[in-house]
Amino acid sequence: MEPLVALIVGFLSARLAGLIGVEALDGWHPALRVGLALLFVLTGISHFHPRLRPDIVGMVPPRLPRPDLLVTVTGALELLGAIGLLIPGLVSWAAVGLALLMVGMFPANVSAARRQVAQGDPLGWRTVLQLVYIAAAVLVAL
Known about the structure:
By secondary structure, the protein is mostly helical. The protein has one domain. The protein is built from 6 helices and no strands. It has helices spanning 2-19, 28-46, 53-59, 67-85, 91-115, 123-141. α1 packs antiparallel against α2 (28-46), α2 (28-46) packs antiparallel against α4 and α3 (53-59) packs across α4 (67-85). The two termini are 26 Å apart. It is found in: Membrane. One of its GO terms (cellular component) is membrane. It comes from Streptomyces zagrosensis. This is Putative membrane protein.
């Protein structure tokens, strides 16, 4: 739920800043970029946080090798993608990359829900949230 809050608060804060005169944020598209970037900063950092990392490593399907390395790589990609969303020449590339990353990581959400590991939302709600995040990334990419 925290990533959704980050997306909404980031979007609304950036949109408000645009409305009160911050020209770079004047419009729904730049505001959505900020909200999506904030979401991925939050989730990317969580991949490295000592209390959260074990749960995230536990979400990786057991058949995949080196879950710790996979979590490190995906966390780094999320953080790099968040930065890319804020650099005008990289926005579309970063948004497409993040959308593909979310699609690629979704099986971990399914696996975690089925095995009842890691804290989090049930699979139905995880699916809805993942679709919202992917849709936001696609909108940013366009």
